[in-house]
Amino acid sequence: MTAETETKTEAPATGSCCSPSGSCHDTSAVAQVGAVTTVYQVSGMTCGHCEGAVAGEVSEIPGVTSVKAVASTGQVTVVSEAPLDVEAVRAAVDEAGYELVGQV
Predict the structure, then answer these.
(1) How far is residue 42's CA from residue 20's CA, in Å, rounded to a whole number?
(2) Please, which residues bridge with residue 41 across strands?
(3) What is the pLDDT of residues 71-93, one digit of tens each?
(4) Which end of the chain is less packed: N or C, by CB atoms within 10 Å?
């Protein structure tokens, strides 16, 4: 079983139990117009708590609209309004207690 944690900084919509929007389809994979998606490799994540810690810190970076961390692969996918400074991402990952290895 793979644990995944996704954090979004935008306010959730209200809806049914299927999804926040009320749809029975997950639309989180839909590309945002003008958004930049970057995948980072992070070492040390082993569980859902780790994913949440990394996603929580990275989501605090200005301009970040969503973060998805996957412990089993060590990958953290970040969607932002513009390209992020890698040192800001590194600092956020460090603050969470993990190490940014680089971009995928």
Answers:
(1) 29
(2) 75, 102
(3) 999 999 999 999 999 999 999 99
(4) N
Burial 24-34 (b: 16+ CB within 10 A, else e): eeeeeeeeeee
Mean pLDDT of 60-74: 98
Return left, alpha or beta for 74; rule: phi > 0 is left, psi -120 to 50 is alpha, else beta: left
Structure tokens at 104: 């995928």
**Smallest Cα–Cα separation from 100: which of 81, 47, 92?**
92
pTM of the model: 0.70
Q: Is-contact 38 93, C-beta < 8 A?
A: no
